[in-house]
Amino acid sequence: MAEQETGTETSLADETYRALLEEILSAQLAGGVVIQERRLAARLGVSRSPMRDALGRLEGQGLLVRNGKSMLTVRVITLKDYLNSLTMRLLVEPTAAALACPEMTESKLAELAAMLRSIEDDPDPDPAMIWRFDDALHQGLGEASGNPFMAETIVQMRRYTTIFERQRRLAQRKPGLEDHREILAALAARDAEAARQSMTRHLEKVRQRVLSTY
């Protein structure tokens, strides 16, 4: 019975973590908001034990921080944080794209191409669909690179850039479609150098687009 209860608590903690992570990434829990543990637990319908576990994980990942009064708050992603994260992505993602070129499966490439076509064909695509495609492409490249350290770095750095963009509504309605088409074309051609260059251009354009708003 104890093992079953432990397993249930672990599952609840994982579910709670994923729910809170999505709320932070989507800016439902905005930067600077004070975390009210009891209220969050009641809203998500979980006990305080899995809630504390989930909050501890998010704090360990730097997405929750302590303010001057030692209260747990959602981290505010500054422009400096954003640019530093993009710099890390520029160091890692072009290489990940090159390494993924011979490894990404045809089925995964077809899935990504279908997602991109769906966005292109929709005059007013759901923003959630755009973010799902962006996640699938960038994280998929990290996974296909065969380097787990690269994959984890991409996940972590993209969390910061995603929070910044979504909280400030900087993403365009159909952002970077041409860039994404170029990246997918390079992957489909198994051209590692073209994939590297396409990813570099894409991230540089993202940086310039954000800087132009300041």
Protein described:
There is one protein chain. This protein has 214 residues and is mainly alpha-helical. The chain has two domains: 2-74, Winged helix-like DNA-binding domain superfamily/Winged helix DNA-binding domain (Arc Repressor Mutant, subunit A, Orthogonal Bundle), CATH 1.10.10; 79-211, GntR ligand-binding domain-like (Four Helix Bundle (Hemerythrin (Met), subunit A), Up-down Bundle), CATH 1.20.120. Helices cover 71% and strands 3% of the residues. It is built from nine helices and two strands; from the N terminus they run αααββαααααα. A two-stranded antiparallel ribbon has the order 1-2. A hairpin with a 5-residue loop joins strand 1 (64-66) and strand 2. The longest helix has 24 residues, at 2-25. The model is unreliable at 1-5 (pLDDT under 50). InterPro entries: GntR_C, TF_FadR/GntR_C, Tscrpt_reg_HTH_GntR, WH-like_DNA-bd_sf, WH_DNA-bd_sf. It comes from Stappia indica. Residues 10-77 form the HTH gntR-type domain.
